[in-house]
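# nightly structure sweep
# worker-07 picked up a monomer target from the shared queue
# config: single-sequence mode, recycle default, output format = structure tokens
# input follows
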Amino acid sequence: MAERPGQSFGERIWAHLRRSPGAMAGLSLVALAFLAAIYAPFISGEAALLWYEPGQGLSSPVLVDIFNRWSYRRPHDLVFNLAALLLPPLAVGWWALRRWSVGRRLRWSLGLLVLATAACWAPWLPGANGWQSVWRERALPERNAAVLASSTVAGRWALMPPIPHRYDSTWQGAVLVPPGTVNPATGARFWLGTDSVGKDVAAQLVMGARISLTVGLVATGLAMSIGLLIGAASGFFGGWIDLVLQRIVEIMLCFPTFILILTVVAMLGRDVFIIMTVIGLTAWAGTARLVRGEFMAQAVRDYVAAGQVLGLSRRRLMFRHILPNALTPLLISATFGVAGAVGSEAALSFIGLGDPTAASWGALLEQGRQNIKYAWLIYVPGLAVFALVTALNLVGNALREALDPKRR
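# output follows
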């Protein structure tokens, strides 16, 4: 890959990725999955995007419903909903502050998202029952497609989401209907049909992206954190610390990871947060060995010896100086780890150990297995899992080539 003088490390990597059709295809699919997960309430839902009521004017029920704890009960839903509101101003900020480094802009963006989440969760608003938070239980939205379809009010109109059905709403007389069937209650179409209990498959597909990405990112982040701490201590200190920690790593590697996940989930429950925690707690061993090797290679370098002579603390040497030089293989491993976690969550749901209250692509596949003649229950979620896992693997392979000086 030709590199022009003055390019930063990130610019060189991005230039390499842009030259790879597979990398760009993978990045596009991953970006599409993230956008679907972030803007899920605006793509599929029963709250109108815009609602006009004669005498009351124009309103946007969906902007209120995204902070409704009845509609979005889980904390990760609040984070995604806030990201949907913050993404446009953050995009403008990234362009306006383009002189800042990517890392600095990323830290500010994540910090703003964390502050917004804390502000929505904290009880700081006065109410009839005391102090309450922005994200709280509200009445379910009455301005939806069903109300509009049965309305006789002249002049009333609404702009509904492209999929005007919630992922958890069931519709009578709409069990296992094929794609394109009209819902008699709302007049809207089931674009990808319905499942065995009358839920919209398209709505579950969109919300399922949230579950897959949340499990993938949280589980991989947890596994990377544990593996980083254990591998760093093992590689830097050596001796008996390395001996003890590596025996623990070898014990973890001896267990079949998926069988261990099955056992723990069957014992503790099928909540999605238990699933992502179990995946993270059982997938750190490979990261620990990888970090150990990198730390052992870096610990004998001259800059580490110079830091020791200067009296730098071990913590500062490990995490301020050695860690940045050992991050390259971790980034590649994290990409493949997210893909593996997405596949594990889909597999757990497929065999009936997923969260029954969550919209999961694996659960749709399991319904397809039980209703084999209804092809949309097989191909729709199957292609979604295949596309996301393949895209993450393509990005991981491209990063491995871009970060390897020998390949460049």
